[in-house]
Design brief:
The chain is of the alpha+beta class. It is built from 30 helices and 24 strands. Strands 1, 2, 3, 4, 5, 6, 7, 8 and 11 form a nine-stranded antiparallel beta sheet that branches. A nine-stranded mixed beta sheet has the order 16-17-15-18-19-14-20-21-24, sandwiched between helices. It has a two-stranded antiparallel sheet with strand order 9-10.
Length: 804
């Protein structure tokens, strides 16, 4: 018997020793696991992705969407053993207020950033998510005050949820964060980790004990059934261990503490008076809380009796998905707090059929973390490129980057700049290999002006093209609305006078003006006129018009030319008999023509006039390729025109509709639609293949909305940030769906500048293509009749030589 008793005690002692040993081994194992976990967390504390979330101000997404989001975030839970050594994933939801505005952020470990982003977009489809620099969230200041909130009662005790509110709880929280000074920062941080089930088991045990006590007939216990229902409702949903922190930075401690107290007071709205509420934690080191805020730390200590489901202590509060959605969600239109950083303009995904490479790089499409370069094929550029946007939005820089690529690719380019600054910038970026291909026409160079003879033509067809273009120019300048200032009589006179002057290769605009002023000057050209109708105009109609009537008409006609011939700068350009450059040759030899029409140097009217002369010359040169169609190939030529509304005549409509087959490819930019007349507007929106819109005004947004619908609406067009554009791109002859694109500023700013190259081009161009001002003046004086005798042969002219 004694032996049995001894054996029993031995077994007991062995069991005790084994338990002690197991406890020791387990303790050592847990200590080692804790060391590994802390080391891992320390190594990973900087491996965070900072996401800023913006939504449209008129979004109607309800708070329930946030609960859907948190339901998804519960899934980011590591297994027990993996979490033991590496810790659970921590996600930080933050509202940060500065003088610049109130922003909403989500900070997540790098390895799950893409997955969390998808969860956010699933719940908030219209949200824009940007990866930002952490410095945009946190600033250090003179005084920092930090506080942490915790539930006063057990974690399974409920607080108010969004269904219990008439309004939106976020309105109150965000209002407490508003109206800060420049040197102040105020933030609310919610760090969450999916909670283990011990809190739920403790809640279930609590409900069972209360119900059992209430069911005992021997003890009269009043049971609050609504409270038990609240507990059951809370534990029925997944929960998060949660730390809510409030951080304030200010110039003095009193202000910083005041901001913290103001924010904490807003959490009283979640109080269920009989059950649970938030309270400020006491006796917590401020330095530790600041570190925890910066590194988004959350240490969970959970002491409970497993088999009895009794919770002894929990260092954190547990909020279920509905409660989390209540205390933190992204704002909708019901949140009217001033200063919230709303989404100004949405982004759109690039279509899948974008070419992976191409001759022209446009920019970057960045959507939901996916970046794709946007290229355009040369064959799609023949359908032209239209750019619209307010001043300062980046359209000129964008267009320069396109032109520079063409220059680097060895293409023929003409760039017409009414400001002059674009040309100055391009000149410094011209590659040395193309230095000799560049022709710079600075119209303000009065010492060696370059000529542009409006009468210079190589064929009868070209003559009529140029005359029609000149008449359209006069309409554009003097009678844009066709109110009768111009008319058939003036058109007839201009046509006959210009055809007459063109019979002499030395004729210029000076001769046109003189033909109107000098009643006998036509006699000099009459023997060379081959067109009988033009001859009859002079010998029949003009010669028989009474002098008084001629004088009356002369003032009317001359007034349309005098402005551009009496101005010395303009006269020295249009008064030269030979144009400085041959447009046919420029296009055929892939030259680079840079035209500086700076309004600040020569005036707006002169700038517009010369631009209106240039465009038809380029069009005429392109149309002359018609004789080569099907016989030989000819190179592309790219025409860039900034502020093109100043030069938009029916010739532009012709380029858009017909010049495609002649490989004259147009890229134009301007500021607003109202600058275009109806004919040009219809040509642009009916024929342009690729359309890009930077930020525009309200009226233009209304007009452009159908072009970019349904992906984008007028609010997006109005609020697009600088450097961002919406584009409808032609790919292999077919338009894509509209998508968003960013100008690649890195590429633009990294392009090296060489002032020496620019200066060389300036000197080279003016020496090769310019003419000394004195020589030009001498020629003009001669053609104007100041150095020749009066014609005396009028009466001796043999009228029988006229063929009719």
């Amino acid at each position: 018997m004694n032996q049995l008793i001894n054996n029993f005690y031995n077994v007991i002692w062995i069991a005790v020793y084994l338990v002690i040993l197991l406890i020791f081994v387990f303790s050592m194992f847990m200590a080692a696991a804790n060391m590994v976990r802390r080391k891992h967390e320390k190594l990973d504390q900087f491996k965070l992705t900072f996401l800023q979330i913006k939504l449209p101000p008129q979004n109607e997404i309800e708070v329930k969407a946030a609960e859907q989001l948190f339901d998804g975030l519960v899934g980011f839970k590591k297994s027990f053993f993996k979490a033991l050594f590496t810790g659970q994933y921590r996600i930080s939801l933050e509202i940060v207020s500065k003088s610049t505005g109130i922003g909403f952020y989500v900070v997540v470990p790098n390895e799950i950033a893409a997955l969390v982003e998808k969860q956010i977009n699933g719940a908030y489809p219209s949200a824009e998510i940007d990866i930002i620099n952490p410095n945009e969230i946190w600033d250090r200041g003179k005084y920092t005050v930090v506080a942490e909130l915790k539930l006063k009662g057990p974690s399974f005790y409920p607080i108010k949820v969004y269904d219990d509110f008439k309004g939106d709880a976020m309105s109150t929280i965000s209002s407490s964060l508003s109206k800060l000074k420049d040197d102040e920062v105020l933030a609310v941080q919610y760090v969450i980790v999916p909670a283990e089930d011990s809190w739920r088991h403790a809640g279930q045990s609590f409900v069972s004990r209360i119900k059992n006590a209430g069911a005992n007939p021997e003890k009269k216990v009043n049971v609050d059934t609504s409270f038990l229902e609240g507990v059951e409702k809370k534990i029925a949903k997944s929960g998060f261990d949660t730390a809510i922190r409030v951080v304030s930075i200010a110039q003095d401690k009193f202000t910083a503490e005041g901001h913290v107290k103001n924010v904490i007071s807003t959490f009283e709205q979640f109080t269920e008076v009989r059950y649970n509420r938030f309270k400020r934690r006491s006796f917590v080191s401020s330095l530790k809380l600041i570190d925890d805020f910066i590194y988004r730390r959350l240490k969970v200590t959970d002491l409970h009796i497993p088999f009895l489901d009794i919770q002894l202590y929990r260092s954190t509060s547990v909020l279920n998905t509905a409660e989390m959605a209540t205390v933190f969600h992204f704002p909708n239109k019901d949140v009217q707090t001033p200063g919230i950083m709303w989404l100004g303009a949405r982004k759109g995904a690039a279509p899948t059929n974008l070419p992976d490479t191409g001759e022209l790089y446009l920019g970057k499409s960045v959507f939901r973390g996916v970046e794709k370069k946007v290229y355009m094929l040369d064959k799609d550029r023949t359908r032209h490129f239209y750019i619209i946007g307010q001043t300062g939005t980046g359209k000129s820089e964008f267009m320069k980057s396109l032109a520079l690529q063409d220059i680097n690719n060895g293409e023929g380019v003409a760039f017409i700049d009414p400001h002059g600054s674009d040309i100055d910038d391009l000149l410094q970026k011209i590659p040395e290999s193309r230095l000799n291909d560049v022709i710079l026409w600075d119209v303000s160079d009065t010492e060696r002006p370059m000529g542009l003879n409006i009468l210079e033509a190589q064929s009868d067809d070209e003559r009529h093209i140029l005359i029609n273009a000149f008449i359209a120019l006069l309409y554009k300048l003097y009678d844009p609305n066709h109110q009768g200032i111009m008319g058939p009589m003036l058109e007839r006179a201009i046509r006959n006078v210009m055809l007459t002057a063109m019979t002499d290769p030395q004729s210029t605009a000076v001769d046109v003006l003189r033909l109107f002023i000098d009643a006998k000057y036509y006699l000099k050209f009459l023997p060379n006129i081959q067109d009988p109708l033009v001859k009859r105009y002079w010998t029949d109609e003009f010669a028989r018009t009474p002098e008084a009537r001629r004088n009356e008409n002369m003032g009317y006609f001359v007034s349309k030319f005098d402005r551009f011939v009496t101005d010395k700068t303009m006269r020295d350009i249009v008064g030269q008999p030979k144009s400085a450059f041959n447009f046919h040759q420029i296009m055929a030899e892939r030259k680079i023509l840079l035209v500086d029409l700076s309004k600040g140097k020569i005036g707006e009217e002169n700038s517009n006039f010369l631009g209106l002369l240039l465009v038809p010359r380029i069009l005429s040169a392109a149309l002359s390729r018609a004789s080569m169609l099907g016989k030989q190939d000819f190179p592309n030529f790219f025409l860039y025109v900034d502020e093109f509304q100043n030069f938009a005549t029916p010739d532009f409509a012709t380029i858009l509709s017909e010049a495609r087959k002649y490989k004259l490819n147009l890229t134009v930019a301007h500021q607003f639609v109202a600058q275009l007349d109806d004919q040009i507007k219809e040509a642009v929106f009916g024929n342009v293949g690729t359309m890009t819109a930077f930020r525009v005004g309200a009226e233009d947004a209304e007009y452009l909305e159908p072009q970019f619908a349904p992906t984008f609406d007028k609010n997006d067009l109005i609020n697009n940030p600088n450097g961002s554009a919406y584009i409808k791109l032609l790919v292999n002859g077919h338009p894509t769906i509209p998508f968003s694109m960013m100008v690649d500023w890195d590429m633009i700013t990294k392009t090296a500048k060489n002032p020496t190259i620019a200066e060389t081009i300036r000197k080279q161009s003016r020496e090769k293509f310019g003419v000394a001002a004195k020589d030009v003046e001498d020629f003009i004086n001669n053609r104007a009749g100041y150095t020749e005798p009066e014609p005396t042969k009028a009466a001796e002219f043999d009228m029988s030589k006229i063929p009719f």
